[in-house]
């Protein structure tokens, strides 16, 4: 029952609706329903945020370690160097997302051409 | 109208760059342009979409994918919980709030909380409809256009395009952390993701999220107990 499992035009849309829309909007609707009953700094929310953060972080790392397409043709060391440089620039450059992205891209593109 | 204008701000532009990256990611995953734009419209939150793409890439079943996306999106609930009291007036109809809650994702949420104090309370639902609707619509167009031109890009440009998504999240996820535990969780997730990708293909995201998240929460409890007198 994976994304490519059923060869019908509607299957990808059903997959996106169930695994995407239902899995996100349910939380949003519950948020409206509970509106105000849960304290923002309750301990349960720390756990919830921790799991969500670790999960998204795992996705980020996998995109850098096991990318698809054109990015897969670059050496892992270059992708790591660009990511680390970008993150360091973000941390030391006043925590601006744009600074981190620009530095990472500059290192990556520079390295791509330097390596031929 | 002011809500529409707020969509064209620095956070709004950074979000566009992240969606440029997302379009490239979706294309490489093999999604059609219609599926990609559909995904932007119905899911909207970018982390959820990237997790969904990750699940599609690792050949996860529809249930494992839904579970991973749901786990990554629980945070939407407290975000909505925080936003609703600011928009609600005694005359607001509940269905308006349910409808508007679909626009809740990191960028629109941060912008709304920042700008709401300059907006009269009875205008806030209208403001948020303009802001959220504009962000969604804009990025649906951005994704469609980028998807279509991505073909003609030289390899270095499309590789650089792919790097946008992880870099956007690497930095904004770190910056959005409320407490130290989130930073711990992020470092653990970054390390565990690739490890489980090799050890537990198909369940890598769930395993890294649950184990990394629980460990970070354990650290949070431990650190607080030590800090308490």
Portion of residues within helices of chain A = over 70%
Give the terminus-to-terminus CA distance of chain B: 52 Å
Could you say which overall geometry of chain A the principal axes of the C-alpha atoms support?
flat
> What fraction, in percent, of the residue positions of chain B are helical?
over 70%
Summarize model confidence as the mean pLDDT of chain B: 88
Number of strands of chain A: 0
- Indicate the radius of gyration of chain B in whole angstroms: 19 Å
Q: Return the domain count of chain B.
A: 2
SS strand fraction of chain A: under 5%
Low-confidence segments of chain A, given as residue ranges, are: none
Number of strands of chain B: 0
**How many separate domains of chain A?**
3
Describe this structure as you would to a colleague:
The complex is a heterodimer of chains A (116) and B (229). The mean pLDDT of chain A is 88. The longest helix of chain A has 25 residues, at 10-34. Chain A contains four helices and no strands. Chain A folds into three domains: 1-37, no CATH class; 39-68; 74-116, no CATH class. Chain A has helices at residues 10-34, 43-65, 76-92, 97-114. Helix content of chain A is 72%, strand content 0%. Chain A is mostly helical and 116 residues long. Chain B has 229 residues and is mainly α. Chain B folds into two domains: 2-176, no CATH class; 177-229. Helix content of chain B is 79%, strand content 0%. In chain B, helix 2 crosses helix 10. Chain B is globular and about 55 Å long. The N and C termini of chain B lie far apart (52 Å). Classes of the chains: A mainly alpha (116), B mainly alpha (229). The interface between A and B is large, with 79 and 111 residues.
């Amino acid at each position: 029952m994976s994304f490519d499992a059923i060869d019908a035009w509607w299957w990808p849309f059903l997959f996106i609706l169930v695994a995407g829309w239902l899995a996100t909007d349910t939380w949003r609707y519950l948020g409206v329903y509970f509106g105000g009953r849960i304290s923002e700094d309750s301990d349960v929310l720390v756990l919830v945020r921790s799991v969500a953060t670790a999960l998204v972080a795992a996705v980020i790392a996998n995109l850098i370690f096991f990318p698809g397409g054109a990015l897969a043709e670059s050496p892992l060391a270059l992708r790591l160097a660009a990511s680390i440089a970008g993150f360091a620039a973000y941390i030391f450059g006043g925590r601006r997302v744009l600074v981190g992205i620009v530095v990472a891209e500059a290192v990556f593109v520079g390295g791509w051409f330097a390596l031929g | 109208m002011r809500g529409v204008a707020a969509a064209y701000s620095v956070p709004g532009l950074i979000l566009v760059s992240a969606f440029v990256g997302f379009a490239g990611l979706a294309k490489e995953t093999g999604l059609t342009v219609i599926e990609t734009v559909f995904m932007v419209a119905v899911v909207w939150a970018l982390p959820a979409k990237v997790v969904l793409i990750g699940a599609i890439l690792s050949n996860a079943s529809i249930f494992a994918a839904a579970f991973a996306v749901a786990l990554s999106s629980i945070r939407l609930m407290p975000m909505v919980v925080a936003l609703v009291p600011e928009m609600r007036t005694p005359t607001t109809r509940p269905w308006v709030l349910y409808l508007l809650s679909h626009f809740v994702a990191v960028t629109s949420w941060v912008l709304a909380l920042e700008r709401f104090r300059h907006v009269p309370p009875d205008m806030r639902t209208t403001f948020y409809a303009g802001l959220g609707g504009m962000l969604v619509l804009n990025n649906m167009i951005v994704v469609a256009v980028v998807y279509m031109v991505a073909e003609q890009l030289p390899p270095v440009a499309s590789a650089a395009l792919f790097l946008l998504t992880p870099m956007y999240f690497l930095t904004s996820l770190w910056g959005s952390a409320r407490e130290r535990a989130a930073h711990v969780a992020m470092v653990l997730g970054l390390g565990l993701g690739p490890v489980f990708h090799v050890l537990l293909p198909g369940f890598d995201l769930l395993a890294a999220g649950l184990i990394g998240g629980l460990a970070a929460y354990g650290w949070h409890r431990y650190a607080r107990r030590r800090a308490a007198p």
